[in-house]
Amino acid sequence: MFDGYIICGTPRTGSTLLCNLLASTKTAGNPHSFYRRQDVSEWAEDWNLASRDTMSELEFKIAYLDAAITAGKGGTGVFGLRLMRENLDELSAILDQIFPRLPSDKARFERAFGHILYVHLSRENKLAQAVSLVKAEQTGLWHVAPDGTEIERIAPPKEPRYDFERIKHEVAELEAYDAAWNMWFAEQGIIPLRVGYERLSSNPAATLASICEALGIQPPNAEDVRPGVAKLSDETSLDWMRRYHLDAVV
What we know:
Helix 6 packs across helix 7 (164-188) and helix 6 packs across helix 10. The chain is built from 10 helices and 6 strands. The strands form 2 sheets. A 4-stranded parallel beta sheet has the order 2-1-3-6. It has a two-stranded antiparallel sheet with strand order 4-5. The protein is globular and about 55 Å long. The model has no long low-confidence stretch (mean pLDDT 93). It has one domain (4-248): P-loop containing nucleotide triphosphate hydrolases (Rossmann fold). With 250 residues, the chain is α/β, with parallel strands linked by helices.
């Protein structure tokens, strides 16, 4: 039986969809990116943590960890965390300060979070992933609900503009992040549960059921699963992919 899970992902792999699905079960925790460095202050404020000025940095990190575990459980017995590869080393360093002299990242994670299921969320089509990422960064729109309502926008609306070099850079970076996750799993002796974006997006109920079963939790009935996030891929995305393939062979 697992005490919790960590969704090990990269941007635009459907992690928001997966987090929402897991939270909707009311038994599988409430996963978020608690250790995304840009969001730490906001989470600390939401949790009414004392000001960092009133305690040492180590005391703050301990208080933050305790609050993150409570939030990640969401009133259930299972802890959930979403972790991007770019934040992994930073989280490990924080845990090393709290729990010094442990021999590995895995040992630190288990000391902090208990027996953890590692869920490696990846996307086979790296070009589609890179196009999705560049479009989101350009337009400011990251997630929409199935009815088209905007869920997450981080910048004023802007028209997307095809940029071969930027897409090429993102493809390489996303491939490197995925390879880095796999290298880390091997170094730590971890066999993750592999979850692909393509299956998650086409059959969210089956993907959710497989994770619940791995966790030892009763999965919800398939007909009760309601994805709270819609795909943002559109004709512009397809056009950029066609243009990229043409430009890449020039």
